[in-house]
Automatic annotation (TrEMBL):
Residues 103-120 have a biased composition (Low complexity). Transmembrane segments: none annotated. The keyword DNA-binding applies. This is DNA-binding protein. It comes from the Bacteria. Gene3D superfamilies: lambda repressor-like DNA-binding domains (1.10.260.40). Residues 87-122 are annotated as: Disordered. The keyword Transport does not apply. GO terms for molecular function: DNA binding. InterPro entries: Cro/C1-type_HTH, Lambda_DNA-bd_dom_sf. The lineage of its organism: Bacteria, Bacillati, Actinomycetota, Actinomycetes, Kitasatosporales.
Length: 182
């Protein structure tokens, strides 16, 4: 790899860090390890071609262009954390990955696309992920933080919202959401 390619890869990974919280190579490798997958299976569950997954992992491509794929990544991250904490078994995880693979994305706020199989109502985590996905489709995390810092002196609650949902972790956003429900 020449210097220009190395620079482009480093820039793509930095963009991934701002958009997704970390480079996609690290995120995807963690999903592979946590869920017992290989790259081909991960690509299939996400709805990506194996070459596209490889390009995203290596930093040859920076952004996931399909919002439904981004939602599937988020769903797999949630599933991996549930497997790690023991609330979902390996067998249940396999079934859930099939559901994730079949999901078309869409807005949980309007009731289209993904819905919980046990209830028609979206879960708090799904609503939070939808808000995060919407904010992150508009601006990179670094830009959202800059905007929040600009708003903080006059609109601290709005600044906090932008930081928590636009650049924070899903668990923190869920706690924030639940703390602001009456």
């Amino acid at each position: 790899m020449d210097a220009a390619q190395q620079e482009a890869t480093a820039r793509a990974r930095e963009l991934q860090r701002s958009w997704y919280g970390e480079p996609l190579g690290a995120l995807f490798r963690r999903l592979i390890d946590d869920l017992g997958l290989n790259q081909a299976r991960l690509a299939a569950v996400l709805g990506l071609s194996a070459p596209m997954l490889s390009q995203l992992m290596s930093g040859q491509r920076a952004k996931i262009g399909n919002p439904a794929v981004v939602q599937r990544v988020q769903a797999l991250q949630e599933l991996a954390s549930q497997v790690a904490d023991g609330s979902v078994s390996a067998g249940e995880a396999t079934d859930r990955m099939e559901e994730i693979k079949k999901s078309q994305g869409g807005s949980v706020l309007t009731g289209t696309g993904q819905t919980s199989s046990t209830s028609g109502a979206p879960t708090v985590r799904r609503v939070v992920r939808e808000i995060q996905s919407l904010l992150r489709s508009v601006a990179a995390a670094g830009d959202i933080i800059d905007a929040a810092d600009s708003l903080a002196p006059t609109h601290p609650e709005l600044a906090e919202f932008l930081k928590v949902y636009g650049a924070g972790r899903t668990a923190d956003a869920v706690a924030h959401y639940e703390g602001h429900q009456s």
